Amino acid sequence: MVFYFKARPEAGDYTIFMGLDKYENEELIKYGFPEDIWFHVDKMSSAHVYLRLPKGQTIDDIPEGNKVNNVDVVYTPWQNLKKTASMDVGQVGFHSSKMVRTARVEKRINEILNRLNRTKVERTPDLKAEREAVNAVERAERKQQLREKKRREELERMEKERHAELRSYKNLMVAEKMTSNKDIAAKNKTLQELEEDFM
């Protein structure tokens, strides 16, 4: 079971979700998205909470809120979560401690918690299928971008060839119209007749 919340339902900006227990946390760790930010109360037993950011937003755009006073909340991008075989169920580490941030929350803000609880929805999602669907869409977008790039490169190549052919054709036309000094001398034309030929 996964609990879903909307941080700003009127704007539809942020989806917050958390597993019911440490076993669901394992699935959330395994099938997270690059836009997910992971949260946990530091040095306390608490839920793993995820915030899914809209594309284009960063960890710096995150709103704050908490249930308990005077706690440190650690958070980091999902890609920074590290899971090894020796870790207990629901336990995680970090690839880079430099990417982990801590926020000291002095006072609980009930208004935010009440607003979140009004948006609470329970679902049993297929996290693997969701992740695979997003991967398929991203692969299709990359393929489309690659096809468009190849098409642009082919059009540019064809345009260069066309320009080269035009230059070659113009050079050929000029060469056909050119008269050598020997030809001019052989025709015994006067200077005035030569000028008239070129006019």
UniProtKB/TrEMBL annotation:
Domain of life, per lineage: Eukaryota
Region (Disordered): 139-159
InterPro entries to which the protein is assigned, alphabetical: Jlp2/Ccd25, NFACT_RNA-bd
Occurrences of domain NFACT RNA-binding (ranges): 1-95
UniProt similarity note: Belongs to the CCDC25 family.
Name by which UniProt lists this protein: NFACT RNA-binding domain-containing protein
